[in-house]
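To the team - zinc ion complex, inputs and output below.
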Amino acid sequence: MPVVHTPAASSFRGVHRGLSSAAVAGLLLLAPSAALAQVVGPAGSVAPSYQPGIDVLHYEFALTLPDTGSRIEGLATVHVRRTAAVDTLRLDLLALDVSRVTVSGAPVNARRDSARIHIPLPPGSSDSLAIGVTYAGSPTDGLVISRDPEGRWQAFGDNFPDRGRHWLPTVDHPSDKATVRWIVDAPDALRVVSNGTLAEETPLGGDSSGRTRTIWSTTRPLPTYLMVIAAAPLAFVDLGRTACGLAESPGCVPQAVYLAAEVRDFAPGPFARAGDMVAYFSRLVAPYPYEKLAHLQTTTRFGGMENASAIFYSDRAFRQRSLGIGLVAHETAHQWFGNAVTEREWGHLWLSEGFATYFAQLWTEHDISDSAFRAGMEGIRRQVLGAAVVAERPVLDTTQRVYLELLNANSYQKGGFTLHMLRAVVGDSAFFRGVRRYYAAHVHGTALTDDLQAAMEAESGEQLGWFFDQWLRRPGFAELTIEWRHDRASRRLTLKVRQGGRFGSYRVPLDLDLVAPDGTARRVRVDIPASAESSIVVEDVAARPSRIVADPAVRVLGTVVVR
Ligand SMILES: [Zn+2]
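Output:
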């Protein structure tokens, strides 16, 4: 999702129903059932919570896209494993017509309601079943079909957070990740780009001449909100083989930009450092988790959407040439955080957005300078302090049911700044070891905030419940007022700290620069307890400071007034 939360761009949303009626080549492709892809990592080791007893292992979506109009035809094959004796599989699918449902190849009487398909399963448990769903219709969201400004037909998936169910029958929840294979028949003029590896691009003959079948497949499981296709007349700009030896797969990470021909000269532009970014994050966190990384000009309603190995950016960002390197860094960081390690519940979205926000700043620190990084963190803190949602709701917001509302200053900026403070609390070394431990424990699976806390505690040797509670489970931020006096005879600096106004008291490690009359500064760290009033003595301060600068390194989320 975008660094800056842009409102939905209504001009790009929805289906252009004014197009001529769908003259669809009514060919429903009965693709051979794909062998279950090898699932790597511990995916599936945690019971999905959205649909207990069901674990989707693999989706295969065979889709026929029209030459014009918006009617699509699909055959979804859903490979599920039962982890308990469950007699019904409920697949989320809105509005589209379902004509046939099979279980292990045999037709079944499935019940349809406005939101789901209820599919009876044979008695049993601990088994794997292949469910086939044949369906068709004009999606009103999820797969967004439109004409580009040049009048060309195009379709882009845009599933976040739970809009995949508008066009794909799925267990549409981030707790259940699965591999995916896309078999897309589309007019030759369209280029089809998706998650994973391009397996096939075959011109079709006979009744389907003028059309091409494109197959993409992943070997890594994804949440449904990251499973997308682009089908559009996009030009291809090769960014080459990047981050060689730094990915999970042997070899390099091929990267490319797909964009409209008329803005082709915009590339590589903000993508010129895409290879360095993947290399940087690979070294900092873990090998790049996917097969390739594509960057696409699309109609996503978000400024950028981190779809696994195929990042979708807004059309406008290309046409106005406003797409910046910070957005590329944010969406690239998501490939590790959010994509490879996925928040198991929406209320923990900060594990995706907070990490992407902070790691984009770490890229700035690496690529530009410490001062640019500090300025970035100051900007993030300003946004937190000014955001109404921060004062009203905690970052861990498990009561919010309108998931798009979670794209807010809590998930992004406060989450990102919380990681920054955690780094200051446990130190650089333990922090990055903790990040790597957390990532390694959950790569290609899912995680909750407690998992991050456990990894950080293991690497730092400290109990961190106080930290996670005060920054993630309470609204607000610290508001400190510090009065000080110096006693020359005892060489003591005494601080009287007051807090606890609107948001209660915080335990805060605080750096102070004691600035001498000659301008030299001595930095001391004091540990401010979570109390409304506290008194702290700094020993061995010979001369009275001319002034005291609080939090010079921008490490405290809040306000500090020194008197
Ligand atoms: Zn994001």
